[in-house]
Amino acid sequence: MILLKAGSVDAGKRLDHFLQDHLRDYSRSRLQSWIKDGHVLVDGARARASRVLRGGERVEVFPADLPPLKATPEDVPIEILYQDEAVIAVNKPAGVVVHAGAGAHSGTLVNRLVHHFGSLSKVGGELRPGIVHRLDRGTSGVLLVARTDAAHRDLAGQFSSRNVEKTYLALVEGRLSADSGRVTKPIARDPLRRTRMTAKLGYGREAITEFRVLGRYQGFTYLEVRIGTGRTHQIRAHMASLGHPVAGDRLYGARARDRIFLHAWRIAFTSPATGERVQVESPLPADLRQWLNELTI
């Protein structure tokens, strides 16, 4: 049993949002299923996920196991950009989810990886074999996959110590006046819209984003973006905080398009197999090249 106490800062929060803030090791869908099944009590009584807390409540959580899930192989083509005995770099298409989660258990990149490579690192669990880092569903580009547990731990250490260089290409709305810039605003989950992050609260997790202008167009600016941290929606939240959301990113205030213009272009890391520095690039996809070509200077 997990015992939580709602404080004054929790007043006004929904019960499910309160649990998401305090039990980050559990998915949103799992927490909601526990509430629905009566495994969460507020002051000794069952409550709905939408219950609004006043502050001071005693919240008891009785974790319940869900049936074990395992990624199943799916015979769908996958583009390999680099591979050695320890790591695979693949080109993730836009619109493809990296691994299974709430509402997505098939059609993921992991389903494809399991079919093509069979055995991958198990450090991330049965639903995330080989996955060391992620890209948003709408983001295309280079993604690293660990083949062994040892490689997974090595790569995770490189990400944690910021020895992995990640460079993106992004088109943002509006014309940026500066030729380059650095954003260091902390990022937290948006308390009003839980599906997005925000860099406008003044608190949250450290995040570092650097950008360089590659081109200016009527109503848009084309950027090369490097991130020193890997926060959820980092580039999207940081650019939105500057008043220049990523083009097509409706969630952060941009005008809607078929996809967002964000591409993981280049990644550099040290191969756990060879000890050598490796740089992998993914060319800008045809749909994004066409989008650029349609813009006027």
Can you describe this structure?
It is a single chain. By secondary structure, this protein is of the alpha+beta class. The protein has 3 domains: 2-61, Structural Genomics Hypothetical 15.5 Kd Protein In mrcA-pckA Intergenic Region, Chain A; 67-160, Pseudouridine synthase (2-Layer Sandwich), CATH 3.30.2350; 167-263, 2-Layer Sandwich (Pseudouridine synthase). Helix content is 19%, strand content 27%. It contains 6 helices and 15 strands. The protein has helices spanning 15-22, 28-36, 109-117, 149-160, 234-241, 286-294; strands spanning 2-5, 40-42, 45-46, 58-61, 79-83, 87-92, 140-146, 165-173, 180-183, 188-189, 197-198, 209-217, 220-227, 262-270, 277-281. Strands 5, 6, 7, 8, 9, 12, 13, 14 and 15 form a 9-stranded mixed beta sheet that branches. Strands 1-4-2-3 form a 4-stranded antiparallel beta sheet. A hairpin with a 2-residue loop joins β12 and β13 (220-227). It is globular, with a radius of gyration of 21 Å. The mean pLDDT is 91.
